[in-house]
Design a protein that fits this description.
Layout (H helix, E strand, L loop, with lengths): L8 H8 L3 E2 L1 H7 L12 E4 L14 E4 L11 H12 L1 H14 L6 H8 L5 H6 L7 H12 L5 E6 L3 E7 L3 E6 L7 H16 L3 E6 H6 L1 H13 L11
Parallel strand pairs: 2-3, 6-7
Antiparallel strand pairs: 1-2, 4-5, 5-6
Helix pairs in contact: 2-3, 3-4, 3-5, 4-7
Pfam families: DUF559
Organism: Agromyces marinus
Protein name: DUF559 domain-containing protein
């Protein structure tokens, strides 16, 4: 087997194994937002193909008859492999990123649906195209599992667009890990939250570390509001 000299190391390693790069490493080349940092090489090997191993090999094999181009499988196949390899949350985050960036276009849903088992069809069907980050995808997915539905990307007069509105008056905002605006963004967020409060909204704001690493804190904060009906407007009694 031969490979051109300028192939990335992961693609070259997959080719040396007799397959093509897939799963999270392949999706990273497409620029998708990924929840987990999967390192190493994930190789798609045809069902009857032979896996060539090297000394100290820790590569992950995906037995799948997937087409390949440039040493990598198509994004739709890599997404299907990610669901099987990493689970539903990683899958939803990557899928919504692919839809948002146009890496996977709407007709690709049907192709992806055909590649995943029936119990995962709802994940494909419900994936949205408007998630600005994987944090939004993850938060919405986790709340949906709790039976909580959200309005996404809502425009509020005087405030602008917010990530989510729960019920009538609870705004949920998530701040990405790549936010480098520092104090200036903090000031803008405080102004937005104050204006929203003047319009009768309450705001809960979470950052990357909270959503990814301290989810129980996030969940408790949201459920605490919901259990006391603080996400709903109540008639004013003068």
């Amino acid at each position: 087997m031969y490979a051109v000299a300028d192939l990335p190391d992961e693609v070259r390693a997959a080719a040396a194994h007799g397959g093509a790069l897939t799963c999270a490493p392949r999706l990273r080349f497409a620029g998708l937002w990924l929840l987990a940092e999967q390192h190493g090489v994930h190789v798609a090997i045809p069902g009857r193909g032979r896996m060539f191993e090297h000394v100290g090999c820790v590569c992950v094999t995906h037995r799948a008859d997937a087409p390949a181009r440039g040493g990598m499988v198509p994004v739709v196949h890599a997404l299907a492999h990610l669901r099987r390899c990493a689970g539903a949350e990683d899958f939803v985050v990557a899928l919504e990123s692919a839809l948002r960036l146009g890496v996977l276009e709407e007709p690709g849903r049907a192709a992806l649906r055909a590649l995943v088992p029936k119990h995962a069809w709802a994940l494909v069907d419900d994936a949205r195209t408007d998630a600005d980050s994987g944090l939004e995808s993850l938060l919405r997915h986790r709340l949906n599992r709790l039976g909580i539905s959200l309005q996404s990307q809502v425009s509020i007069p005087g405030v602008g667009r917010v990530d989510f509105v729960l019920g009538d008056r609870l705004i949920l905002e998530v701040d990405g890990r790549d936010n480098h605006d520092g104090p200036s963004k903090r000031h803008r967020d405080l102004v937005r939250d104050s204006v929203a409060a003047a319009h009768g909204f309450d705001t809960l704001r979470f950052d990357y570390a909270m959503v990814v690493h301290d989810w129980p804190v996030v969940e408790a904060a949201i459920l605490g509001k919901v259990e006391r009906n603080l996400h709903l407007r109540r008639p004013y009694v003068g």
